[in-house]
Design brief:
By secondary structure, the chain is mainly alpha-helical. Helix content is 73%, strand content 0%. The chain starts with a helix and ends with a helix.
Length: 205
Amino acid sequence: MNELTYYLPCLWAFLACIGFSLLFNIHGMGMFICAGGGALGWLCYLLTAPLVHSDIIQSFFAALAISAWSELMARLRKCPVTSYLLVALFPLVPGGGVYYSMEHAINGETSLFLSTLLHTLGLAGALAVTAVVLAILVAVNVFACALPATLTRQDISAAQLYSVTSNTKVVVNNLTDDVTIYWIVQSGQEDAVIENLLDKYESLS
């Protein structure tokens, strides 16, 4: 396949997202991030074509790539993900399907109208479902990371060597003054076991 088959659509998607970024008042690096997401989505759309032979599934994977890109960039730049995601998804929006559906409806071509409309809804649904599913997964991951160590890290050693015993919990709960534990270690050489144990002590406070 000619390389231009991949390069040109990605370039047009990039330029289209630049225009939509200006419309949404996104400037500077954010504009190029949105455009990069649009180009990445089209590249993924084109690369999956020989594998799945379905534009709905292609749209799903393209939207998945765009959503992951937008989530990553939003966290790196500490910005809302919505603007990146909306602009980058624009090149995948099935505007042509909506147009042809209405054309068939006006011309009284009922069967063509219904088939085109259902196909367009499938494309739009693939975009929406992908963005929602990835957002839920990211939210679950953030929530799981915020849980205390006692819930996320389990001691599976036979003698429970890395657990806080019930007697220790009683002593800690009866403390009336704050206790500061100093851990002196070279940066980058922290022991994961000790760090886990200290996290458990912290969760008791």
